[in-house]
């Protein structure tokens, strides 16, 4: 029989919750159910939970790739210049879109929720949206300068102009892209 320390002022709230959950886990482990059956059920539950979380992320990523593939296929039928412009635009926009990847949010919010501090998780989310808004402005400006960037690199003026237009059209999606990339950690 394992005895756990009593709740007192020497243990923070998080530690008291952890000790209480361990006590419940220990009492469950002492049941008559075989350990192998519990382990198999736990693995099945974990796999189901992962699939429930991963499927929407998979669909979101697949839809983005599908959109880009459709754009490329349709532009290939328009003209070689349009396809070249889309390729230049995609190179610049994908390079600068990396700034919208806020990977630290999952770590901070996960730790706060794990500690039972939902208010701190909300604060982290709100602060990340303010920072993301500021970074999004930088990305919109970068995408708006696509034509000038490719002219500076010596690309054809007509193709650079079309690439700039395509990037400006894509910048309309930034308000939807930024929160998605921030909240959905791949």
TrEMBL record:
Protein name: MATE efflux family protein
Cross-referenced InterPro entries: MATE_fam (IPR002528)
Annotated GO CC locations: membrane
PANTHER family listed in its UniProt record: MULTIDRUG RESISTANCE PROTEIN (PTHR11206)
UniProt family annotation: Belongs to the multi antimicrobial extrusion (MATE) (TC 2.A.66.1) family.
GO terms of molecular function: antiporter activity; xenobiotic transmembrane transporter activity
Transmembrane segments: 98-117, 123-145
Pfam (any one): MatE
Keyword Membrane: yes
Keyword set, alphabetical order: Membrane, Transmembrane, Transmembrane helix
